[in-house]
Amino acid sequence: MLVIGIAGGTGSGKTTVVHNILRDLNAESVIVISQDNYYKDQPELSFEERSKINFDHPRSIDFELLKEHVAALKNGESVSQPVYSFITHSRQDETILTHPQSVIIVEGILVLTDADLRELFDVKIFVHADSDERLIRRVRRDIQERGRDLDEVLTRYQKTLKPMHQQFIEPSKNYADIIIPNMKKKNSVAIKVLSTVIKEKLNSKTTV
């Protein structure tokens, strides 16, 4: 089993990198764990209070549960991933039953900020993208997928997203084994190198 952590700023292209890895590998042998499902559930707060949570700060993540699930999968145990709604800012009743596979990908903006979680990764990746490009993607996603208006998205970007990126996310790049630039030509080359590294590590584990 190989555990890969993929971090990067919001809108940096992490999802695209994951899809490219799945394309190059046997997708049936890969599972993806999204940090977005591990935001802390705070039902004691009103919707208005939950709406004001700083979702770009590490303390918003239930790292204990995330580490517990990754460790369990590494031990060959199945887990029930939570499902988080960014519309209601709360966990849903349903869960995702997830079985261990040869490759586990853990992706999210903050997955390289937790030291204990990093210890569970065999390969650590950071996807780098221009800040303007990331903002454009964030605006589109939050409006189209999360029901936000433009003013709300830009306000959140200025007050929390940008300063949190500078304080926590960008520095976590220093822990990465591989940094992938989100430019089409260089990105494709980096993905091929990454796929080769993954295959080699899997082969070395099976021959031990």
TrEMBL record:
<dbReference type="GO" id="GO:0044211">
    <property type="term" value="P:CTP salvage"/>
</dbReference>
<dbReference type="GO" id="GO:0043771">
    <property type="term" value="F:cytidine kinase activity"/>
</dbReference>
<dbReference type="InterPro" id="IPR027417">
    <property type="entry name" value="P-loop_NTPase"/>
</dbReference>
<dbReference type="InterPro" id="IPR000764">
    <property type="entry name" value="Uridine_kinase-like"/>
</dbReference>
<dbReference type="GO" id="GO:0044206">
    <property type="term" value="P:UMP salvage"/>
</dbReference>
<comment type="pathway">
    <text>Pyrimidine metabolism; CTP biosynthesis via salvage pathway; CTP from cytidine: step 1/3.</text>
</comment>
<dbReference type="GO" id="GO:0004849">
    <property type="term" value="F:uridine kinase activity"/>
</dbReference>
<keyword id="KW-0067">ATP-binding</keyword>
<keyword id="KW-0963">Cytoplasm</keyword>
<keyword id="KW-0808">Transferase</keyword>
<keyword id="KW-0547">Nucleotide-binding</keyword>
<dbReference type="GO" id="GO:0005737">
    <property type="term" value="C:cytoplasm"/>
</dbReference>
<dbReference type="InterPro" id="IPR006083">
    <property type="entry name" value="PRK/URK"/>
</dbReference>
<dbReference type="GO" id="GO:0005524">
    <property type="term" value="F:ATP binding"/>
</dbReference>
<feature type="domain" description="Phosphoribulokinase/uridine kinase">
    <location>
        <begin position="3"/>
        <end position="186"/>
    </location>
</feature>
<comment type="pathway">
    <text>Pyrimidine metabolism; UMP biosynthesis via salvage pathway; UMP from uridine: step 1/1.</text>
</comment>
<protein>
    <recommendedName>
        <fullName>Uridine kinase</fullName>
        <ecNumber>2.7.1.48</ecNumber>
    </recommendedName>
</protein>
<comment type="similarity">
    <text>Belongs to the uridine kinase family.</text>
</comment>
<dbReference type="Pfam" id="PF00485">
    <property type="entry name" value="PRK"/>
</dbReference>
<keyword id="KW-0418">Kinase</keyword>
